[in-house]
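User: Predict the structure for this protein chain, please.
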Amino acid sequence: MLDNPRSPRVRAVAALAKREARSETGLFLLEGPQATREALTYRPEALVEVFATPTALERHRDLADAAEQADAPVEFVSEQVLDAMADTVTPQGFVAVCRQFPASVKSIFRGDEPPRLVAILEEVRDPGNLGTIIRAADAAGADAVVLTGRTVDLYNPKVVRSTTGSLFHVPVAVGAELPAVIERARAAGLPVLAADVKGGDLLEARAEGVLDSPVAWLFGNEARGLPDEALELADRVVKVPIYGRAESMNLATAASVCLYESAFAQRSAR
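Assistant: Here is the predicted structure, written as structure tokens:
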């Protein structure tokens, strides 16, 4: 059992909360039994190490069996060691180390089987928003998410937690340049709809049947939205209407509405 919170091995795991360590190692931190379960189910090859307290493992015996089958056996650690490894105050008895597995933009917009629904994120800076949008994209049945180089790190611990496992379900490309992504989307037959307060009513686009077909949604920064040069690249700019007295809508909420509007429209059209 690992019981020294100051050991080099424990410090190496804890360091993955920092971007520099993640960039150097190509690894990232995973916390909690549910996130570990999702990784074991959908990306077992990505798991490098799994750490758990004896009490937590007793409550989740299925994870020990799944980890062993994935050739990533669980190692016992003390509560103090787990607290030192984790980025959160309550890691719920499990911490894992995973290899990063970003998708490529080319694979997302492949010609043999082009996607029907993709989310493109330009300069999204809040980790919670990014994780929630990835989760919403997964729930709406989106084929992929693409992050431009100015968006927060996909493997930031807060992003990983906010996806609640969806990180392991939907392909996510990182570090892309927006003009190149839009060009690939159009080449794959997906018009680009930018969500921005400067746009027309989303309901008009829905009524015209724009959402019935494959589409790539473009979402921008929480505070500034999308710059004019990004809006000019889009095929159409739309906004989610606000009928009440709210001053504005959270980015993740607006993105969820847009993605689900497309999901509903595409399924109804079929």
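The longest helix spans residues 251-269.
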